Each structure stands twice: as C-alpha cells, then as structure tokens.
Automatic annotation (TrEMBL):
Taxonomic source organism: Longimicrobium terrae
Domain of life: Bacteria
Membrane-crossing segments per the record: 43-64, 76-95, 101-125, 137-153
Designated name of the protein: Transporter family-2 protein
Keyword annotations from UniProtKB, A to Z: Membrane, Transmembrane, Transmembrane helix
Any one cellular-component term (Gene Ontology): plasma membrane
Length: 155
C-alpha cells in the first residue's frame, strides 16, 4: 500500500530542497576549486565539511543511535558510496567550470534519472525491483529531451 500524502510530505520537501541546493553546491565547489587551485582538494574539503555536519547531525538526531557494528556487516560494495560521492564532486566541479551550473546540472539530472530507473528495473545494489513501465520510460525520454533542448544550438 502506498504511503499517505501526509506521511511523505516532509521527506518530499526535504528532497526538493536538496535538489534545489544542487546547482548551488556546483557553483560553491567550482569557486572553491578556483581558490584552492585543486579539484581534488576541493572534493576533500567538501567531504570534510559534510562529514563534520553529518557527525553533528548524528549526535542530535532523534531515535535510535547509530549501530557502528552493523555497518561492518553490510555488503562490501556499500562502502563504495564515499568513492562514488568523491567522483561526483570532482566531476561536478570540472563540469561546472567548463559548462556552467545550468548545463552541468542538466547533464547530472538527466544521467541520474536514466541510471536510477535502470537500477530500479534491474533491482541492482539491493533496491526493490521496479520494472520499467510507460511512465518510467517517459521520465527518461523527458529528461533526455530536456538535455537535448539545453544542448541545442550550443557552439
């Protein structure tokens, strides 16, 4: 049974806010890379700041405390999230500096939608399998169409 609108309203709002912050993060990291003169150091600085924020959040978050021992029992590939995130930060800095925040964000979003629907379809990485259907296929087509419109007429 699907979640009620009341139950998912806050998570949806937080997700939308996070999505709104993505282009700002691209611009912030691009500016930091210019200052530091190192894309890799920019990624490390960004992760350090994020890590400190997450540790603070863990210390004040309501509910059960983090079970650090349980983290050791997960699948090995789960530890790749940090490496993927680091590559994402470095890639977003390079893209933003070369293409601007608008096109960089459009490329990232179109890619994320396409790969997310593929991961859902296959049930990869521990996801619940959600088969491709006409609505999901249309989402991919629309994301790629948005990217094509954004690229149209570029020199």
């Amino acid at each position: 049974m699907p979640d009620s609108p009341k139950r998912i309203a806050l998570p949806l709002a937080v997700t939308v806010l996070g999505g709104c912050l993505l282009p700002a993060q691209f611009a912030i990291n691009a500016a930091l890379a210019g200052q530091l003169r190192s894309v890799t150091l920019t990624g490390a600085t960004s992760y350090l700041g994020g890590g400190v924020f997450l540790l603070l959040l863990l210390s004040v978050a309501p509910g059960p405390r983090a079970d650090w021992r349980a983290a050791m029992c997960g699948p090995g590939w789960a530890w790749l999230g940090g490496a993927v995130g680091s590559a994402y930060i470095v890639g977003s800095v390079i893209l933003t500096r070369a293409l601007g925040a608008g096109l960089a964000t459009t490329l990232v979003i179109a890619s994320q939608i396409t790969v997310a629907i593929l991961l859902d379809h296959t049930g990869a990485l521990g996801l619940v399998q959600r088969r491709l259907n006409p609505r999901r296929a249309a989402a991919v087509v629309l994301a790629l169409a948005a990217l094509a419109v954004r690229l149209w007429g570029m020199p």
